[in-house]
Design brief:
The protein has 99 residues and is mostly helical. Helices cover 53% and strands 0% of the residues. It has one domain: Ankyrin repeat-containing domain (Serine Threonine Protein Phosphatase 5, Tetratricopeptide repeat), CATH 1.25.40. The longest helix has 10 residues. It is globular. It comes from Opisthorchis viverrini (Southeast Asian liver fluke).
Length: 99
């Protein structure tokens, strides 16, 4: 449930709903049906502001989905170059691959 609520906010690049959910105890480290994190969603939509917020809030830039894809791989696949650069600035590994 938490992931879907966060996913909608992240996908629309809206910070206020994310802050509201956090104020009411919703954990940021929830995952989607396929193991994707909110960082994966942020890079897919290219929302750099939300990506930075999630990283500074403590989400793991090296976390993987069920296919072992990191947010960096999602950023590259979706041609979100600014998000890819941001993830690398925060320590995303470039030596990983998916299944």
């Amino acid at each position: 449930v938490w992931f879907v609520l966060y996913e909608n906010a992240v996908a629309s690049c809206e910070i206020q709903p994310i802050l509201f959910l956090r104020q009411h105890g919703a954990p940021l480290d929830c995952k989607g049906e396929f193991g994707e994190t909110l960082l994966h969603v942020a890079v897919k939509t290219g929302c750099l502001e939300i990506l930075r917020y999630l990283i500074t809030a403590g989400l793991d830039v090296t976390g993987t989905d069920h296919d072992w894809k990191t947010p960096l791989l999602w950023a590259i696949e979706n041609q979100q170059h600014a998000c890819a650069a941001e993830l690398m600035n925060w320590g995303a590994r470039t030596d990983t691959c998916d299944r």
